[in-house]
Amino acid sequence: MHHxxxxxxxxxxxxxxxxxxxxxxAETALAPSDLVWPLFVHAAAKPAAVPSMPGVERLSxxxxxxxxxxxxxxxxxxxALFPVVDPELKTDDGRLATDPGNLACRAVxxxxxxxxxxxxxxxxxxxxxxxxxxxxxxxGTGTILNDETVEVLCRQAVVLADAGCQVVAPSxxxxxxxxxxxxxxxxxGHHEVCILSYAAKYxxxxxxxxxxxxxxxxxxxxxxxxxxxDKKTYQMDPANADEALREVALDVAEGADMVMVKPAGVxxxxxxxxxxxxxxxxxxxxxxxxYAMIRAxxxxxxxxxxxxxxxxxxxxxxxxxxxxxxxxxxxIARGLG
Length: 337
Prior knowledge:
Elements (H helix, E strand, L loop, with lengths): L18 H7 L9 E8 L5 E2 L7 E3 L1 H14 L3 E7 L18 H13 L4 E6 L12 E2 L4 E2 H18 L3 E4 L6 H11 L6 E8 L6 H7 L1 H8 L18 H13 L3 E5 L5 H11 L3 E4 L2 H12 L5 H15 L3 E3 L3 H8 L1
Parallel strand pairs: 1-3, 1-4, 1-12, 4-5, 5-8, 8-9, 9-10, 10-11, 11-12
Antiparallel strand pairs: 2-3, 6-7
Helix pairs in contact: 2-3, 3-4, 4-5, 8-9
């Protein structure tokens, strides 16, 4: 007996029968313009592998410029820069973060000089690469100092904008920093510099390889003796999703132009809710641990690496992300070309 609207009249497999038909009815499409490529820059002249992130290297400033040129060729609209600061240059107060001659600022100027506006530059605003204790903020007695940290972040954002960065991305999770950074940028004449707020950044177990790459893992170990062994007092609890919406709402009210959810792959529900609730440009960061898991499984023959990489990024877009920061960016962009 036939049931109108049900089986066997309706067979959803019909539109899966042919590759061309699957492509025609696909609800989500991935393009190079959806990707942002995170890059690690160090002061050395030669690249250095990051053992916990196979395929990723710390690059010289010249290497970062070449990577930015490759991004432009591949149609990747922006790179995100993360400096690897020499240990002897780190201080308790992270003062190098506000130095116009620091590594991040030099890299920004080099990219801008070579490429102009052909590729966007996103710069992290946080103190963890610069501090001897590895925290994103200033370390007091058994606590991370919020308001004092925000003042330093404002100066860091301004020197990055002065260097030519078009998007500053505070990733520190201090309360109130977006509004203060907006005020500082405007006061310095940088009215058109965007703020991409890491609005929902979780205290995740998936950041380990990144901390290896920038050298903050070792420094964080020293913070335990000072009463703050981890980042759980300022980054969000992975148990919470409603709180993420409150964080985003506050940052939007303070002037965030775009918001970030991090880590992406284990926060698909949050990405979806943020995009639906606010309709703001919503980015997501497929973090180092998520990247490393796929790479490691592929190296052992347990996964088809390229397929798994592309699928992992596609579903982040399906959840609602407008752009995805991913170390797979050049590989995926080449595959889409």
